[in-house]
Amino acid sequence: MNKARTTENIKTSKADDISDYIKDGLLEGIWKPEERINDQDLAEKLGVSRASVREALAQLTEAEILKKVQWKGYYVKTLSRDEIDSIVELRRAIEEIAIKRLCENPNKNAFDQLHRVVNRSREAIKNSNQLNFLKIDFNFHETLYQHSGNPYLKNAITNLIFSINIMRNLSMGSISDYYSSATASVEDHQAILTAIEEGDTEKAVNLMNTHLSNHLKNIYRGLNDRETQPYSLDTAFDMEMILGESPLWHPDRDLLVWLDIRKGLLYSSKNGTANPEILYKGDHIGGLTLQENGELLLFFNNGTIGSFNIDSKTLRPLNIKFPQDVDSVYFNDAIADPKGRVFLGSIASRTQQGAVYRIETNGKMSKVIKDVSISNGMGFSPDLAFFYHNDSTRHSINRYDYNKETGEIENKKLFYQVDNSIEPDGLTVDSEGNIIAALWNGGTLIMISPEGQLIKNIEIPALNTTSICFAGCDLKTLFITSAGGENRNRNGEKAGAIFKTELMTAGKPEYRSQIM
User: Fold this and answer.
1) Facing residues of 138 across strands?
2) Is there a catalytic annotation at residue 425?
3) What order of strands is seen across the sheet that includes strand 36-37?
């Protein structure tokens, strides 16, 4: 008599089936690196519960195939070049162990299985079944691990190789690419298998290393295509703002908000596509953050701070006391950290230098960076190891070590220097750790790698680009504010407008302030 399946068994089985479905979709390219997988849409499509889908997504996150982004959901994990290199290095070592053990202990059953895998791979190519080929192609290596006599080899790298295969698909976009890459891979496997059967360990290992090197070149080719792909720039709103600034995405409301500081206006646009509306008109605002409760924390240039309710259009003043050595503050740019604190910049005045302040959730304010000219854009690395800060008139992007638990920043290092005629203004960090900065008097954005290398320039038809943010449900649309709309003859044909573009990387959700 068969044992009845329990509810728990059914649930586990369903999650496993959904997990396999998602993995197939990843190999087919239905979801690409950095793309969000919507659990509700997937549950409706498969006719299963949302809880089962979330369980499957959690399994894939634990396997490091997906990543969970706070407040946003599950995204396909991408791999940096360093991560890919590290995985391939580990894979070389594991493949060598498996080959040596099979050469030293020939196994007819293993050889028969490997021959069947090679034949099935050829059949998949013949039938133009790319998904089936990718599964079978990986099965060649799994079979090596399985019959090596070391049960830990397969578990050590299986999920990592799957993530690499997702990246590999970037280099197999066309039919001709697929046929040439797949055929070469199968012939490599055949040659490796022949060498193993002959007991020639050195030859088999050398062939495997060449196979993995070719595999790596294909992945890099796909990455290069992503990184060098031309971008398209559109004018989102052809406004003539005097000082457009501080764009911010409100994911709860699908709302893009931004400032025209000189006019004392706070704007909003539903989905970043609807006609702009004025949320607030009054005192000049130098920066803003999104509060945990959905309100906007506004930092006014007269040194006051308030929490703004979008529905009622009311402002609730906050009683935050400045440090004793501060006599006046002209706020400029703000960002919340993972614990709900706020880092807030200021501009130098006649009586004191600019600075960066940290406001604790209890309202206590302290000065954490001194001797700043014009404090501007700030951001955190994805792993929260670093805090980036623009000191505009010193033309520098600086990097600090950051402690998430205490909020301390220390060990200032010059990260990137721009030309003396140009000032780095707003800043954001994408999900891969690249820093994107708007350049005042530069008419461009720059993307810089986490290692401090310039990746690309994005030209903007406005001399003074001021700030940037990722927006949209997938955080893939980059909005760019600009200034100088009062004199387009001098400042560019689209000065004061808001632009948008889509890069090959997505943003990451901004942290929310909890200053109540």
Assistant:
1) none
2) yes
3) 36-37, 73-76, 66-69
